[in-house]
Amino acid sequence: MQDVYINRVAKFLPNGPISNDEMESYLGLINSKLSKSKHVVLRNNGIKCRYYALDKEGKATHTNYGMTANAIKSLFVNAPFPIQSLQLLACGTSTPDQMMPSHAIMVHGELKDSSPIEVVSPSGVCCSGMHALKYAYMSVKCGEVENAVSAGSERVSPVLKSSCFENEVTNLSLLEENPYLSFEKDFLRWMLSDGAAAVLMQNKPNEKGISLRIDWIEGASYANQTEACMYMASEKLPDGTLKGYSEFSLTEIVNRSIMSIKQDVKLLSNNIVTLGFNKLKNIIEKKGININEIDYFLPHMSSEFFRSKIAEYLDNNGLHIPNEKWFTNLTTLGNVGAGSIYLMIEDLFNSGKLIKGQKILLVVPESSRFSYVFSLLTVC
Question: Is the pTM of this model over 0.90?
């Protein structure tokens, strides 16, 4: 088995940063009414800026696969070898532009200067980016390839636009019910952001500068114990099961905004920290890791609301990580789902702060049905 190193990291963010006050200029008002939940959600999540692949008329400016390809192309600017020598590509996202072909295949289609290579598209939500990372990591580690690229990205803004919900809210108004969007749908309109980032992995470190050696990657799903918490293209039934979009008529899909992203906030709050950090505690104990030797802690958080919850759990379980070791960019980039952990790695890798020998702990939770991926990196 070979050691695997992240040698280059790059990102692509569409258009310019969008402030909290500008959001509805891009997403639009639902039923011509200001959102009841927007300010409460933004106050709790701490996000100040985000990026949309939209203009103010709501028209798309970028595709998901196009943003991902742009991030990957940046990896090879002044790189030690050309993109023609890339041997494997793995891309994760929650929001592909189409159901078929797969997302990573579409990304490869944009990389005109690359060669015919193996391409993998893990599906899922936030963990899909880490699953892509692990597939590429394992391929290099076992000697199948000498280099690989993995990426995480999202283009969620199209399904956050007011036009996606107008029929549903109009129907509510006709029935003289509350003419506002339900909280499970409106909540996520103020959380999510667009963007992409990618890493280049090799079986040897950079000759100059730093590299990040991947020491291990471990994941766990709790879907056998929990019902769906975040879901899309489906509707949750009273018994907790999901009814998929294919079981609805086209009229129902539009009138009930079935294609929107929904989240059960109560289920999220009750499970997301406890399940994931119980698993992290087990991993740390199994591997004999000294938590005091962690130099940077990169938790993917959907909201700053969870910072104190995570810190409290760590403290109560003998895993205290001082606040100065925490590293996130949620407030400036928003929640980019599968791309968030890549964007944090990119930010830290290119910050000039890293010193050889430092250790970086990654934690990526996924609320869809409570899955988690953890990883330890060492600066080389």
Answer: yes
